[in-house]
Amino acid sequence: MLVRRNLNSKIGLGLVSIGVGFVMIGMVLAFNVFGITFGTFSLITSGLFLVLYGMTFGTSVNKNLNYKLLLLNRILSLLLVIGLVSFIWIETLVFQSLKSNDNVRVNYVVVLGAGIQGEEPSITLKRRLDKSIEYLNANPNATIIASGGFGKQVIITEAEVMKRYLIVHGISESRVLKEENSTTSDENLRYTRLLLTQLYGAEVPTILIITSDYHMFRAKHIAYRYYPVVYGISSETPRAIMINYAIREYLAVLKMLAFEVSRIVYW
């Protein structure tokens, strides 16, 4: 039976209350606004973590159970500190790249896919394409590579949808290349490099990436694996939905870093 323990009990009760609040907000957003996304799932998961963490601040008349609660409290405290430090560090890097706007002239521009709806680009992808059109109109000698393959339950590639959108909005078909095999950001940039070297047989070119602001840090980081010089121009994401993408990007960067560490270990 758990009993009160002055200050620690108050801390635990506060954590449980905050956790329950996170879970409720996450469920409301998931079922009424965004659906089940990285952001809403993470909010609910964080809430459950806080509920469990808060419960470890209680005590019991059972000494063995008290020891287990204390041990669990220390483990969760360590995980919490690691999570907070890594979140602040990664989000700082992400937010430093939000306003990327490299006003340089390059021969090749790569616009990264962001999902399609039927045969139309998603809202996020439209923002990237509109930013691409601005650049292409200002730099008439640039060629753009629309990069994106088949997603789930689609009958047309992202690259083809992007190409159609660019042509409808005044970009000459001769200026648009398609990379239609990729399904991840790494593949976007790796397969684009292969496409360019196969077509032109030249050294790896300098590229300019056009992608969403929240995605720019990770996209550039990946691009440096394949290109000697990388520039970027960000398309803006509405602040109202930025938290969802910011949390998702945190998890994506963690996955990217874990992959790179594994490559070093097994090199």
From TrEMBL:
TM spans (from-to): 12-34, 40-59, 71-90
InterPro entries: Cell_Envelope_Assoc (IPR051599), DUF218 (IPR003848), Rossmann-like_a/b/a_fold (IPR014729)
Pfam families assigned: DUF218
Entry keyword Cell inner membrane: no
Keywords associated with the record: Membrane, Transmembrane, Transmembrane helix
UniProt source species: Pelosinus fermentans JBW45
Entry's Gene Ontology cellular component terms: plasma membrane
Domain (DUF218) ranges: 108-252
GO biological process: Gram-negative-bacterium-type cell wall biogenesis; peptidoglycan metabolic process
Name used for this protein in its record: DUF218 domain-containing protein
